[in-house]
Amino acid sequence: MRVQIKYIKGEEVKFISHRDLIRAFGRAIRRAEIPIAYSQGFNPRMKISWGQALKVGATSSGETAELLLALPLSPSEVMARLNHQLPKGLAVIGANLL
Amino acid sequence: MRELIEAILPTVLRPSRYIGNEINAVHKEWHDQLKVAIAYPDLYEIGMSNLAVQILYHILNARADVIAERVFAPWGDMEAALTANRLPLFTLESWKPLNEFNLIGFSLGYELNYTNVVNMLKLGRIPLHRTEREETDPLIFAGGPSLFNPEPVIDLFDFIVIGEAEEAIVEIIEAAKQTTRKEKLEALSKIEGVFVPGHSVTVTKRHIKDLSSVPYPTQPIIPFTEPVHDRAVIEIMRGCKWGCKFCQAGWTTRPVREKKLETLIDQAEEIVKKTGYEELSLISLSSSDHSKIEELAKELATRNEKRRVNIALPSMRTNSFSVKLAHEVARVRSSSITIAPETGSQRLRDYIGKKMTEENIMESVQAVFASGIEAVKLYFMIGLPTETEEDLLEIGQLARKIFEVGRCHTRRVRVTVNLSTFIPKPHTPFQWERQITINETLQKQRLIKESIRQKFIDVRWHQAEASFLEGVFSRGDARLLPVIEKAWELGARLDAWSEFFDFDRWLKAFADCGIDPTDYLRQRSKDEPLPWDYIDSGVSKEQLIASTN
Lengths: 98, 549
Known about the structure:
The complex is a heterodimer of chains A (about 100) and B (about 550). Chain A is about 25% helix and about 30% strand. Chain A is an alpha+beta fold. Chain A has a single domain (about 1-95), classed as Pseudouridine synthase I, catalytic domain, N-terminal subdomain (Alpha-Beta Plaits), CATH 3.30.70. Chain A is globular and about 35 Å long. The relative contact order of chain A is 0.37. The mean pLDDT of chain A is about 95. In chain B, helix 14 (about 390-405) links the parallel strand 14 and strand 15. Among the domains of chain B are: about 1-205, Cobalamin-binding domain (Rossmann fold, 3-Layer(aba) Sandwich); about 335-470 and about 515-549, Transcription Regulator spoIIAA (2-Layer Sandwich), CATH 3.30.750. Chain B: GO terms for molecular function: catalytic activity; iron-sulfur cluster binding. Chain B: This is Radical SAM core domain-containing protein. Chain A: It comes from candidate division WOR-1 bacterium RIFOXYC12_FULL_54_18.
């Protein structure tokens, strides 16, 4: 199942690069034990599609990403678990099934 | 100050090096707590991979009466931006200037970072020498492996800590709560493992009796920007029983102490859950010596299989048991394996006390190639005592033998030969030996390079000039601080980075101070006093002398 999340990138993290943001989300997903799907192969990656990169230094209250889950989990649960694990400045403000 | 910092951050490379807010970072409100800055004199990416930084941060911030924040050496662009905007060096957590802290502790593990200490104190607007500091200035201290010979930098510090700091740091905090600077220094001088210049005469290394009982950072800070070691780390033991004559860590971290199996499993479980890291590395100086290593590695592999966490076992003895165990517990096959034969010949390997036989090496690489790994990295030292040309030529012969074994398994075998210059280190049986000159280093590097003409064997080496400087400062004395300051004035900082390192600057600094650096490389006689004689590492000179043969 696919879950779209809407998240904010706030003051505390506005200077982290898009690549670092992806790493921070990845670790939060693992800590939150969200059943994310992984790609096959030698170097499996989380199946997440990211929106366009924000400029370093910019904040945003409406970034999106799509998570592919290997097992079902309600969007509200995805949001709650992620918000428990994300660093200050990153927060999920909406999640829905695609 | 905040607005100014905000304005410069978008203009520097990787601004997240300077801003904190990472997962597990501790941001406290400033009240009347004791403010401690943990200073690491190299880039964020290096310092955040240093276990001591994470351990001390964790211990200090667990206390309500302390605020501990981090500060690292700024990259060139950041230093320029700070200077241009007349901003002081500030900590990551609260963006406060260094001089607003009560204590600033540097972790020193590499002599080429000494100019960064000077630079950070200058940028932090703190009087450089301990004798220039006044009542309201912070107390500046240092710990770490380099302090086993503190002489070249001792005048920068109000006190130093020798050995392991988990317990001492708590006593330091209490001592620092005294009212006057004089009272603080007096209290500090009474702490085991602490040396206060002007108060103390000698100092004995501090070590933890029971490793399982001291706090361990199972919720380490997880950097946003990628650090050099991007993984969870569990330290499984300290000390090393093998006694290689060149190895400072092996002699100064004695005695050997293991962490209990149950403690290790608990800490590993916690760190994996609290970080989300994809890899868990079990570290020590020689991990295969842990009496429960097989049980531990297999248990952790089982527990972490579903979580997609790779178990890595670096620093294992070179033998087929180690190779098989590492292969068995790893989820992700490593692309290469590293072996440190140290020398080409068995004769020299025996002489330096490296208890590894060519048979061990060959059975290991056999197992490595059989497991599907195609690359082997080999580490050797040049300039060892008693070394002959024949010993050096045997480096190439060993590399070729390993290459041939690989050829039986794969066409794509790659062997890398890494050469470092032997640096005699204080508190080792080789502390009296001569270090080879830059020219000798270059000649030996060339000899080896020319003896290995295979296309698939790559020869690399550590820059001769950097090893030279490391050698000078490793066995240096107090006359070297003016040289460090002079080099800093001439622009030296971030000397561990080839893009910044400029040897000519150092030569000029030595010349200006009237010091011949090559004198520090000479052989010492066993009865001459050594600059680090007042540091008791736990191993006496008599024991070291007895271990030289």
